[in-house]
Each structure stands twice: as structure tokens, then as C-alpha cells.
């Protein structure tokens, strides 16, 4: 195994182009587990932690550009206002020690259907900024997940950043697990209200081969919510929204839960999350 | 490969390090610092918690090469030097002893480092919810959590009481 330590981003891209089989390494919270437990042995590790610009985030127009090295801990501490859904999801990741190392970009690279970042990224309409020596490619989040633990990155590409529109309305993340800490989601759900476009965004986690939107639920709620009058959420609308979210999932039975339970839990989480978000929206009128 | 790092304030070098090796392995097997414990090797248990550049992390999930040039503090580094009845113990360690927060002791080094980090950031005595959250990634299989919470409260109360005899 080789341990590659680029000092600059340009060097990292050059190394990845020359060694496309190299596994990018950031917080190590996935990659090192694989190595420690001998589940896989990369041909080479490409350590990205020495590259300072990856640890930065910036506001660029309506978007927050979160560098690939920004940890969950920093996202929670520094971006809770701009990216409330992603910050909420980040708070549910692992433990303090894991959040001090893990990154959203690592979550994207691993592309586990259970990754906590994915539902809020979907609900917010994030864009993955992938880069290689050939140039930069902006991948809409809905096109990024291509299969179980597979993503749309080309072999020579690295994730430079994820671009997430700053919140313009309430956002919520909800997750089922056996305890509050150190839990891989049984299933999870995120909702984001986008009042200017009168749209509701959704994201489903751990209930399909990939994280995914619930498009019919989004269309339904976007049309039913009283964006101008801000009347209370009709319980029937909330319930139907939950049903449509659950209908968008394609869960399986596995060690963490049964498919039927996931479907039920998703409907409940979606109904509640929409209620929380809508209550916040009304309260801010 | 060779890895150069600072551990508990001292420059150290580890040679013949395998590229897939963890910082935990380097500390325990190459540098003679067995304080951080090797249990789950997947970041679940927190027994290998050390400071990396001042931030508590699971040493089992840091690749050895990622520690190159960086500053590591292990539980061994929290102990103080000097005389007196508390010689060798930091205030957090002293509180763990006084509160009886140690049973088999395997989880203790990780809990001490993580509690140390919590108190470094806390103002006054942290709320129970904050202590529980801070220690959520440290497993004790002796079911000793109540005493551990007592120890953290005790250390925090002693600091808030400006009992300088217990400060690190």
C-alpha cells in the first residue's frame, strides 16, 4: 500500500490522475474501519488532510461552498444558521470524536444509502463540486448517487466541495436509531421549505439503494400548503405527505430493521417534519 | 515509512510504519504508550481517544501518516509532574479516582481524555445533558456511567470552586 501526501490541491489532482485507484482519505471514519477490520485494502491512500483550502467554507452568492475537509463539528458550530438541515443531520453523526474527523464530502465519497448528510443535501438541492486535472464538474445531488455505495465521480475526480443553497425557510432532519449516539440510520428523512419558489424539498435516507427524493410528495405539499395565508397545516395533507414519502422509498429487510418498519417510520417522520417546518414558517410570518 | 510527530510535548519518530497502520497502533506498539486502548478499531467505543492538534479523536481512525508533523496528547500526557498527594494525576484523573468511576479500567483513558476536553471548553459545571452528549462516544461495559458522570461533575465543581490543587 502507498501513502500519498499531496501538499496542494493541484498536486492531489495530479496524483489522483496518475493513480485513479487511490482511495481519498479525509477523516478516516469509513476508510480506516475497512482497513482495521481487513474488509478491504486500498492500493493507495491519498491523504487530503494536509490541504488547507479544503478546510474552508465560504458564502458564494446564495450558496454556501463547504470545502471537502470541513468536519461535522465545524459545520454544526459555524453553519447552523445557513444550513440548518445539514447541521441537524451532522449532530446525529456518530459521536463527538467522529464528528471531529468526519466530513460531508466523505459521506458523499462513501455514498452509503444510510449516510446522514444525504437527505438534507437532497432536500436543499445541493451540488457536488467534483474536480480533476481535466477540470471542474458540478453534479446535481439527485444525479450523484448511482447505486449502493456508488457515486457519479469519475476515477480521476476528487470532491473539492459541496455547494448548498443557504436556507430561505425552515429545515428539519429526522432519523430512527436504537439510541441517540453512534447510530447508523434505520431510516431518515429531511424536509426543507423554499418559500420563494413555493417548493418543498425532501430527502430519504437508508430506505432505498441510494438516498433519494420523494418527488410526488414534494409536488403534493408544494401545491397544498397555503404559502400566502400561512394557514395551519391540514392534518390530512400532512398524513398524505407522509404516505407519499413512504411510497417513494424502496426499503429492504436487513440487520437494522425490516422494510415494513422503515416504510411506516418514514411516513411518521415525514408527517411530523413537515409539521415542524410549517409551524416554524407560520411563526416567522 | 517513517512518521515524525510530537507526542505529549516530545518529538518522536516511528520507523517501519505500515501505510495502512493507525495512529493508535503507532502509539501503543511503536512508541510504548499503551494508555489509549485498542478495543473496537472502528470508532464505536472511544477507548482510544487522544488529542490530535488539540481536538479529541479516535486514534484508531487516524492513519499513522496523517499524524506526520502533528501534535498528539495521550492520557499519559495529561498527568502532571511534581510532588504532593496528587502527583502524577490531572484533576480529571483525580476526580475519577475519588468518585470511584473506574471498574475494569479499560474505557477509563478514553473517558478521561474526552472529559478533559469537555471541561476545557466548558464554563462552570456542564449540564448533565452536555456531559452525556460529550461522552456519548465512549462505551463502558461495566455499566459504570453514573460514577463517571459523578467524576465529571466533581472535576468541574472543583475547577469552578477554584480549588487550584486539582488543576492540571
TrEMBL record, chain A:
Q: Reply yes or no: does the keyword ATP-binding apply.
A: no
* Coiled-coil positions: none
InterPro entries the UniProt entry points to: CO_DH_flav_C, CO_DH_flav_C_dom_sf, Diverse_Substr_Oxidored, FAD-bd_PCMH, FAD-bd_PCMH-like_sf, FAD-bd_PCMH_sub1, FAD-bd_PCMH_sub2, Mopterin_DH_FAD-bd
Q: Which Pfam families match?
A: CO_deh_flav_C, FAD_binding_5
- FAD-binding PCMH-type domain segment(s): 1-169
Record keywords: FAD, Flavoprotein, Oxidoreductase
- Lipoprotein listed as a keyword: no
Protein name per its UniProtKB record? Carbon-monoxide dehydrogenase medium subunit
Q: Which species expresses this protein natively?
A: Microbispora siamensis
UniProtKB/TrEMBL annotation, chain B:
Q: Which gene encodes it?
A: coxS
The name on file for this protein is Carbon-monoxide dehydrogenase small subunit
Q: Which top-level group of life is the source organism from?
A: Bacteria
Keyword vocabulary terms for this entry: 2Fe-2S, Iron, Iron-sulfur, Metal-binding, Oxidoreductase
Q: Which PANTHER family match?
A: OXIDOREDUCTASE WITH IRON-SULFUR SUBUNIT, XANTHINE DEHYDROGENASE IRON-SULFUR-BINDING SUBUNIT XDHC-RELATED
What Pfam families does UniProt report for this protein, alphabetically? Fer2 (PF00111), Fer2_2 (PF01799)
Which ranges of the sequence are coiled-coil? none
2Fe-2S ferredoxin-type domain: which residues?
1-78
Keyword Metal-binding assigned: yes
Tell me which species this is from: Microbispora siamensis
Amino acid at each position: 500500500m502507498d501513502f500519498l501526501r499531496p501538499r496542494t490541491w493541484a498536486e492531489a489532482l495530479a496524483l489522483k490522475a496518475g493513480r485513479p485507484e487511490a482511495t481519498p482519505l479525509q477523516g478516516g471514519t469509513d476508510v480506516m474501519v475497512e482497513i482495521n477490520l481487513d474488509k478491504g485494502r486500498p492500493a493507495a491512500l491519498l491523504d487530503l488532510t494536509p490541504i488547507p483550502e479544503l478546510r474552508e467554507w465560504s458564502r458564494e452568492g446564495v450558496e454556501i461552498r463547504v470545502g471537502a475537509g470541513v468536519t461535522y463539528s465545524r459545520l454544526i458550530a459555524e453553519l447552523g444558521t445557513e444550513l440548518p438541515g445539514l447541521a441537524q443531520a451532522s449532530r446525529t453523526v456518530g459521536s463527538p470524536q467522529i464528528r471531529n474527523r468526519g466530513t460531508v464530502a466523505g459521506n458523499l465519497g462513501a455514498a452509503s444509502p444510510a449516510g446522514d448528510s444525504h437527505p438534507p443535501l437532497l432536500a436543499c438541492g445541493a451540488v457536488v463540486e467534483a474536480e480533476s486535472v481535466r477540470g471542474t464538474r458540478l453534479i446535481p445531488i439527485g444525479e450523484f448517487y448511482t447505486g449502493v455505495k456508488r457515486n457519479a465521480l469519475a476515477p480521476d475526480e476528487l470532491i473539492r466541495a459541496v455547494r448548498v443553497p443557504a436556507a430561505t425557510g425552515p429545515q428539519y432532519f429526522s432519523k430512527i436509531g436504537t439510541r441517540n449516539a453512534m447510530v447508523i440510520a434505520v431510516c431518515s428523512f429531511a424536509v426543507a421549505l423554499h418559500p420563494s419558489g413555493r417548493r418543498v424539498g425532501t430527502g430519504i435516507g437508508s430506505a432505498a439503494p441510494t438516498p433519494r427524493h420523494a418527488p410526488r410528495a414534494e409536488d403534493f405539499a408544494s401545491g397544498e400548503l397555503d404559502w400566502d395565508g400561512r394557514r395551519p397545516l391540514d392534518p390530512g395533507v400532512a398524513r398524505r405527505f407522509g404516505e407519499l414519502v413512504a411510497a417513494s422509498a424502496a426499503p429492504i429487510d436487513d440487520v437494522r430493521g425490516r422494510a415494513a418498519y422503515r416504510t411506516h417510520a418514514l411516513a411518521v417522520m415525514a408527517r411530523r417534519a413537515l409539521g415542524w417546518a410549517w409551524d416554524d414558517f407560520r411563526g416567522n410570518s | 515509512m517513517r512518521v515524525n510527530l510530537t507526542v505529549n510535548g516530545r518529538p518522536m519518530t516511528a520507523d517501519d510504519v505500515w501505510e495502512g497502520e493507525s495512529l493508535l497502533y503507532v502509539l501503543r506498539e511503536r512508541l510504548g504508550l499503551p494508555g489509549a486502548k485498542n478495543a473496537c478499531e472502528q470508532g464505536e467505543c472511544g477507548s482510544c481517544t487522544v488529542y490530535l492538534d488539540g481536538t479529541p479523536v479516535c486514534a484508531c481512525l487516524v492513519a499513522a501518516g496523517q499524524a506526520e508533523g502533528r501534535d498528539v496528547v495521550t492520557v499519559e500526557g495529561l498527568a502532571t509532574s511534581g510532588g504532593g498527594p496528587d502527583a502524577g494525576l490531572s484533576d480529571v484523573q483525580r476526580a475519577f479516582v475519588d468518585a470511584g468511576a473506574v471498574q475494569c479500567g479499560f474505557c477509563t483513558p478514553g473517558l478521561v481524555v474526552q472529559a478533559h476536553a469537555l471541561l476545557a471548553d466548558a464554563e462552570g459545571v456542564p449540564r448533565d445533558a452536555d456531559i452525556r452528549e460529550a461522552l456519548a462516544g465512549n462505551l463502558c461495559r461495566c455499566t459504570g456511567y453514573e460514577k463517571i458522570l459523578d467524576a465529571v461533575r466533581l472535576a468541574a465543581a472543583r475547577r469552578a470552586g477554584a480549588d487550584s490543587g486539582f488543576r492540571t
